Amino acid sequence: PDEKAVNKYEVVISEEQGVHTVRIYYRVKSGDLGSRFAFRVSNILLLRYIRFLVACRKGFRVLREFHPDLIHVHVLTRHAVVAWLRKTCSGTPYVITEHWSRYLPQNNTYKGFFRKMFTRMAVRGASAVVAVSPALKEAMQETGLDHRNFRVIPNPVETGKFRILESSREKKGSTKKILHVSCFDDRSKNISGFLRVLQGLSAGGAGFICRLVGEGPDLEPMKELAGQLGLSGERVVFAGLKEGEELVGEYNEADFMVLSSHYETFGTVVIESLACGTPVVATRTGIVADVITEQNGIIVDPGNEEELQAAILRMLDQCGEYDREKIREAVVERFSMENIAGELTDLYGSVLNKKH
Fold this sequence. Notes:
The chain is of the alpha/beta class. It has 13 helices and twelve strands. It has helices at 38-62, 78-90, 113-125, 134-142, 186-189, 191-203, 219-228, 244-253, 268-275, 288-291, 305-318, 324-332, 337-355; strands at 9-16, 19-26, 71-74, 94-98, 128-131, 150-152, 176-181, 208-213, 236-240, 256-259, 280-283, 297-300. The strands form three sheets. It has a six-stranded parallel β-sheet with strand order 9-8-7-10-11-12, sandwiched between helices. The longest helix has 25 residues, at 38-62. It is globular. Residues 32-39 have low confidence and may be disordered.
């Protein structure tokens, strides 16, 4: 969907990293869903779904000379319904990888009779379903979305890029550096709770510098909250969005990273930090329980600010005792691009062998 589209549908064809890529943009109007009349909102949603389906049809027409053996759908539900229709018409099998947190009890936005009906239909028709973490798989199963071939294949991390830099091997300063990386959505990331914890640590005399990296809808409110809590200035720094080598540098400069989320489906920043040899204090969300051990960090319960404060205080004392090389070794193979590609290749092979 594109609010700035000049035409009702726009087709963009490109080559991206050697992959033939087709994108179909369809026009939507900003503010449409602000109508206070329920029937008006329903009509707008229906129009958007119709345009989405037409856009998908246009995409398949562009690719009419290409006959896929398999379709891989990311994120339920609309795209999986399209794959289900394609399978019904041509017999092409499809697999689904889900990343969405709506099934988690802390989010609980998987609602609506028709949404659930179409989601169950799409899941039943799939040859395999993949969740990016055991926690997400369990949450989906508890909502009734189970499958005979349900796997967990985590998100890959560019472990060649996220690495221990030679410059970071030097002895760090006496003032400990804490890092937080997120998309600044306070409902899920609990940045406000993290800031309150930092205030408590500061009031208790703990010495630290905290850098919050990222941008998002709650960036400005969190800056205001930090000011209200007396955390402005050098103690707490909002560093903005960092990507590429700048982000790698942030992980390496930090003594440890903090994930304060209420819920996560995966938690990519945890793996990125560990790949850089930087220990982590994290809430028990997403992939955390499967990767964080006494050798690389501390796990706390989501939403428990007292427990989080105690864990950070403990980490301030012991962060220099971790073996950064061993921290990296524990995740680099499991979450590398090559390893995840191998798991997907095995999945594709099993589906195609069964088809034939």
